[in-house]
Amino acid sequence: MVEIDTGKPHPARMYDWYLGGKDNYPVDEVMGRQMLTLDPRVPVMARVNRAFMHRSTRWLAEHGVRQFLDIGTGIPTEPNLHQVAQRVAPDARVVYCDNDPIVLAHAGALLRGTDEGVTEYLQADVRDPDAIIEGARKILDFGRPVALSLVALLHFVPDGDGALELVGRLLSELPAGSYLVVSHATADFTPEESAVATEKLKAAGVTLALRSREEFSRFFDGLELVEPGVEVPHRWHPELGEPVPGQDDGVIPGYGAVGRKP
Ligand SMILES: C[S@@+](CC[C@H](N)C(=O)[O-])C[C@H]1O[C@@H](n2cnc3c(N)ncnc32)[C@H](O)[C@@H]1O
Hints:
Distance between the termini: 43 Å
Bound molecules: S-adenosylmethionine
Low-confidence stretches: none
CATH architecture: 3-Layer(aba) Sandwich
Order of helices and strands: HHHEHEHEHEHEHHEE
Strand content: 5-15%
Mean pLDDT: 95
Number of strands: 7
């Protein structure tokens, strides 16, 4: 029996609300609306982020990657990562992972893939990388390249929880030719609104660890950045499609990048 805590907002459910989904509760909508008063483009940011995930996944599959480890998956929202990857490469193997019980409750929708491909879900916290590695190993061959996808996840993991070290630990298990994909919110473009948002979320029990461009870039130390490097997410390979209405209405306050392990 999955226990859903409806007494405080949860990032997965707020994100679902921004995306127009149905798997959220009044407490998530109330906090979501407060975020909108600070920046009415938050739903656009959510869609831009989702489109970044689609484009980066497609790019990776088109560049031969057949294995994906996606941590901080979120509530299923079509197309999910495995659908994007398996559309290019029907034999792609995908392991999803999230720590929110609501994602576990809906994980069935994540597991409907192609006959050739394999999709699996792990309930785990990114702060326990060893459990993730152990679980993912049952599905993924760590002797072949894996794309480690941390999309809109790390801004919920503060430095005090060892965000950089966690990413390093996960990457250390992956062979050369593997990739790291990260998108992340930042206060660089809207410092005042971001400070208020961070405080409001903290008061509601949600930790938001916004990072500057320089702090974001550190996740890619030792990796070869794929062109165009660190960019605001909608400018990462826009030629791969999926423009989101409103995305050019000022800079979307986030960063996205893909790096290759040499
Ligand atoms: C904003 S959503 C992003 C969903 C999806 N990756 C996307 O970008 O469309 C962030 C997700 O990270 C998950 N999350 C937050 N902290 C986590 C942690 N410590 N371990 C695993 N997942 C976490 C949340 O439950 C939520 O589903």
